[in-house]
Amino acid sequence: MVLNREQLRKMIEEKDLIQNYIDLETQLTPQGFDLTAGEIHRYNGSGKLDFSNSEREIPGSEKISPEKKKGDDYGWWHLEKGIYKVVMNERVDIPNNLTGFAYPRSSLLRMGCSIENAVWDSGYIGTGAFMLVVENPEGVSIKENARVNQLLFQETEETGQGYSGRYHEG
User: Fold this and answer.
1) What residues form DSSP beta bridges with 100?
2) CATH code at 151?
3) Per the confidence metrics, is the pTM higher than 0.70?
4) Which of 6, 12, 49, 168 has the largest CB neighbor count within 10 A?
């Protein structure tokens, strides 16, 4: 079962499922939570992936500075067609009986952009990052803290051991 708005609110307020959000009421959806863009990076290298991860290499990236206009608290990223890494503002603490699935917001899709995500494993603690794909030949502009990705949580049988990989911050 996917958690609904009220179940998510309870998990956020009582169990710190999601922290560092901007506005709980705005970010809660009927059955999910909107994640916001905290940073956008441009990839600047290649990666390597093997079976055991012993030779895995994650490519580097360079943070893109948003352009701020006078009197505006937040700036805009003006992105050309290409692939970018988005680091979200929010931090999650997923218990061992939930799994997260993230999807791009439909507004982003209507602009010719998509977001690629992986499964958010039970037991994962940390700040997530995902891949933004800008296919629109004219590019796209995204304002700091824009809601770009929707995270849904599904109840699962409790696992004995949750995520403990490289990206675990807990």
Assistant:
1) 120, 153
2) 2.70.40.10
3) yes
4) 12
